[in-house]
What we know:
Layout: H1 10-35, E1 37-38, E2 54-61, E3 66-71, H2 73-76, E4 86-99, E5 102-109, E6 127-131, E7 144-151, E8 155-156, E9 161-162, E10 164-173
Parallel strand pairs: 1-4, 6-10
Antiparallel strand pairs: 2-3, 4-5, 4-7, 5-6, 7-10, 8-9
Pfam families: DUF3299 (PF11736)
Organism: Nitratireductor basaltis
Protein name: Lipoprotein
Amino acid sequence: MAAKIPNLTRRQILLSAGCTIGSMLVPPVIAHAQEAKRIRWPDLIPEGLDYGEIIGDGVKDHAADVWIPEFDENGTALNLKFDGMNISIAGYVLPLEVSPEGATSFVLVPFVGACIHVPPPPPNQLVFVEPLEPWGDGNLWDPVLVTGRLSAISRRTEVAEVGYEIEKAEVELFKRY
Length: 177
């Protein structure tokens, strides 16, 4: 028995075609978010190593209230397992460069207040982030979720030695479930 084809109005046909075409555009965005591996801060420490410890004074700038200490090898060792991988990680924003629209670069830190009046965490516990769009939603006390390709690249910023970076990152408020 043949399937019965419904009589569709011109509006229904156009709406159906528009939804079909629109659905072809949406999956890459959804796929991008789904492809990201959700990681936690301890994942950035190479397997088998302990959390890094401060072993020297490093750089102190009393006027700017900044201390960039020297860490042991455990603190500077990077986990190359995630290098080049699309990941998502939750943390807090420590702005470095700010425009009227928001932070155009920041250090993602694992806890509120990291690097502010306390020594920063080890480099392998900090991520330099350049968001796709300036981040200005929420406030500095709200956790964010950063998604993008992680690079194991060390760099020194004004506030800390950083072990990783994510360029063109998607940033959103982190919602705990």
